[in-house]
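Researcher: Structure prediction, please.
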Amino acid sequence: MFRFLNNKVSHVKVPWLTIVLSLVVITLYYVYGAAAEGLVYQRERIINGDILNIITAHFTHSGFNHLVFNVVALLLIGSIIELKSRFVLGMSIVIGVIGINLWLILDSNIMYYCGFSGVLNCLFAVGLFLVWQETKHPFLIFVILGYIIKLSLEIISSDSIFINMVWQSVPMAHIAGLLSGIISIFVIKTICGLIPNL
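Model: Predicted structure follows.
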């Protein structure tokens, strides 16, 4: 089942981008604290022209559980993608951030946002696709079904199902991330030609 990882790990390639990004997220949390005022997305600040927090919001977290869950997921999913292609990981992160930012700007009901989970949903889609391309393992169908059930429960409950959040969870960010992941697959395939057998 994990032939994809075994083939790539045997080349002793280290997922440096994933590790560095995880360290940045952890450092921001410990230097600035949970949901640091100047780092989280605040619609009012964006309207007033302070657009930096639309980027920094993805790298700050509302609490310790939020941080740990996202960093562990980033280390797992990011490593899977980066061991295939560091460029694909970087491009997917950029597309995920852009996609979620567009959703944040267009949804006038979202006043505050922070966390990497939206981008992680983008990376999950890309990583799942890459593993499917490599292995075609039937277990991945159950992973996809479980993921769809998770997203559905989050939308219905308007809450995260894996962790207790200090802030109100924003499940639509996960949907925006998933859509960004689908766009990432096609952008990388058509523009860069990096994903074979699409």
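Model: Confidence is low (pLDDT under 50) at residues 1-10.
Researcher: Thanks, that helps.
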